[in-house]
Sequence to fold (166 residues):
Amino acid sequence: MSLIRWQPLKELDTLRHQMNHLFDELMHSDREFAQFPKLENALWAPAIELTETDTELILKAMVPGIEAKELDIHVSENAVSIAGEHREERRTEERGCFRSELQYGQFQRTVPLPVSVKHEQVKSEFKNGVLTLTLPKTESTRQSVTKIDLTTQEKSARICCSSPSA
Fold:
C-alpha cells in the first residue's frame, strides 16, 4: 500500500474552480430554469476605492454605462450612499444575443467611512464612468500625535493608588 500525500490547499482550489464553473453555468445558461434576473441584479454594485490623506478621504466608484443624471448620491458625516440604475438596451429581432455578462438593474451601495467628514463640503467629479468624491475630514478626525510620558503617569498612579499607612 502506497502513501498519498494530502494537499488540502489543492483540494480547496479544486473546489473553488468547480463552484466558479457551476455558477457560470447557472448564471449564463440558455436554459429557462437557469435564468436568475433578480439575483443577477441584486449582486451588482459598483466597485469602489477609498483612500485617505491627512486632510481628506477620496472615494472612487466605477459606474460605467450610467449617466450622471441617473446617479443618486447621499453623503452623511460617516457614510456615502450611491444608488442608480443600469438600464438594459432594447434589442430588436435581428440583433440576437448569444451570451450577455453585462449587469443591468438598480443598485445601491453604502460605504461606511473610517472617519467623520464635512458632508456639506464634498467635491465631486464624474468622468468616463468613474465617480470621484473628495470628502474633507472634520477637524476632530485629523490625526494629531501626542507624546505620552510614562514616567509621569507612573508617578501619578503611585500617588492616587497608594493606601495610607497605618
Observations:
- The two ends are 79 Å apart (CA to CA).
- The chain has three helices and seven strands.
- Strands lie at 47-52, 56-62, 72-75, 79-86, 105-112, 123-127, 130-136.
